[in-house]
Amino acid sequence: MVSSKSKEQYSSEVLALRDRVIKGNEKLNIAWGQIRAMAHDSESWSQQMELWHQASERLSNLCIELKLKYNFNECLYLDEEGKKTKKCLPPGDDIGCRVCPSAINYWGEELMNLPSPKGEGK
Question: Is 91 left (phi over 0), alpha (psi -120 to 50) or beta?
Fold first, then answer.
């Protein structure tokens, strides 16, 4: 979601493109989980990886359009009060957002706040 200020600021066309980018992130994450479960030395895996990379490239281009053409520089997952509703770096093997138009480096902040590996510095 976008903050209420953004809902007023952006046209329905921009919000539709933002929603398309959100859906693309979700679809790529689902596909990634399915691809990871396949035998990595199979022809099917190679074909699915190629399709996944092509879809990732298209999604990246949509995100660039959102940023450059429409000056949309917000996290895709903000509530009405401007607070994030989804982490950039989710726990486990999920890959989070593939693309993000945000001008704020949320993923970097999350990365820096991760616990240190055990035994570091010993």
Answer: beta
